[in-house]
């Protein structure tokens, strides 16, 4: 869609156009920027432009409008005073004209207050004389504030089309937040939530009642009415738990028509997504399995979005995903086409595995500082603040700082929280997939197992009473230890990301998905839970290297940190502090950087008891040998 904000000089086209573009997440262009220098000089002298002056300028804008429309749309501020000018610009059907109307005195006051613009106030009279007010489009009074004008424009745009552009099924925390995110960008949204007497009643109506400023959202609790309210091809986002997807699809599919798109935005297992993609494809429908990360705040303000499935289906919804996604450091949306079949949900699954290990690593660092060194939580928060400012910045570190400073009365709220970590299953899925594909998954598997062990609270309490706490007679230099701990945490995070990306690399090769790791890292730089300074660095590294631990800047970093890393893990274990992720990361690194390992003994053992054969260093690759080991 192209939106042209028109009116005489001084009516506020640029200001309103920029604000509307920000709201709609579209690029903004000012037609004044395309005037040739001779026209600018002429206007500066107070000489009005004639039709001949404007002809090449309008022709250039018309060509640009076609380009912008093909690229997803734009907002253009342009005077477009005469009907003939507007006909020249109407090169695509989807143009919304927004006319800023106002009295001569109101506009003149604005012009007189404006500085450093080539159009002098005296030119207003000539523009008013040339103006042919359109009988169509949206007319807005310029006496309103720019913010009020934009709200009025959005409201009128929504009322021009009775059908909703986009549907959301499931109004839990994430579904509701995504629906409101879409609506806040000017999208006409239909919402549906199941009706369960006594449990879930009138949920959609409640969302509307709690958000009265949105005039572009409609609510339904009858599925057929919801589907009929959507313009075709329909775009329906499912935000329900994975176990309910098939039942929802069974009810939804008969109501859809060929070319419609269904998006699963929940945490579904990627093989289930591949199966559903094939099922809907056979019915002429597109199923786009989409990972969404960012929690409630991210869903409302801008998440990281990982869509996968048929490219044709993705292309129909891409502009909506880009509209609501977070933005990277260059202003680009944190979403991209991941790959076919279940690639989107697969990458989200790996994201969650990395997230599990990142959280567990921070918990272990906290445990060492508090339970081994005896540092108070508020002082640990101060240490983490220093790390946050000096190379280790991340969202998870940021929220951990807030948690360590939260008190309930005089007590730390953290100390009142039961130490049983729960999980939704995605971490376990990724560990199982790593086993299927033979990919080492040390830190991520360790994090999943640590959560499982934490659930054994009753047994842990009994065991703690049976075993005396370890307390080696070792003097610790706190400052030196904290510095080494920072290095250990830094390296653990690097290794954790390498492990996650290595699983993606292996699956991508075997399934011919052609995953772009630099792009995946880029869309994880904002909006998602694992966004960090390290992720920003990975965007560049994965443009050059496929193996993180072999990248020159990473090699130098680990070389300088490995001695301190090993000492931290050794000392922590001596003190009886469980360090599943830190020690798993260290073991992974040691195994990865060992040229000649003890695996030759394992091969000999396998050949001894099972005649599994082995290869030899002194023979050509691919030749296998067996030995009668008893002789």
TrEMBL record:
GO biological process, one term: D-gluconate metabolic process
Protein name (record): 6-phosphogluconate dehydrogenase, decarboxylating
Catalytic activity annotation: D-gluconate + ATP = 6-phospho-D-gluconate + ADP + H(+); 6-phospho-D-gluconate + NADP(+) = D-ribulose 5-phosphate + CO2 + NADPH
Subunit composition and interactions: Homodimer.
Superkingdom of this protein's organism: Bacteria
Entry similarity comment: Belongs to the 6-phosphogluconate dehydrogenase family.
Pathway where this protein functions: Carbohydrate degradation; pentose phosphate pathway; D-ribulose 5-phosphate from D-glucose 6-phosphate (oxidative stage): step 3/3; Carbohydrate acid metabolism
EC number: 1.1.1.44
Enzyme's top EC category: oxidoreductase
Organism in which the protein naturally occurs: Pontibacter virosus
Location of the 6-phosphogluconate dehydrogenase C-terminal domain: 344-630
Entry keyword set: ATP-binding, Gluconate utilization, Kinase, NADP, Nucleotide-binding, Oxidoreductase, Pentose shunt, Transferase
Gene3D superfamilies, per database record: 6-Phosphogluconate Dehydrogenase, domain 3 (1.20.5.320), N-(1-d-carboxylethyl)-l-norvaline Dehydrogenase, domain 2 (1.10.1040.10), NAD(P)-binding Rossmann-like Domain (3.40.50.720), P-loop containing nucleotide triphosphate hydrolases (3.40.50.300)
GO molecular function: ATP binding; gluconokinase activity; NADP binding; phosphogluconate dehydrogenase (decarboxylating) activity
Function description: Catalyzes the oxidative decarboxylation of 6-phosphogluconate to ribulose 5-phosphate and CO(2), with concomitant reduction of NADP to NADPH.
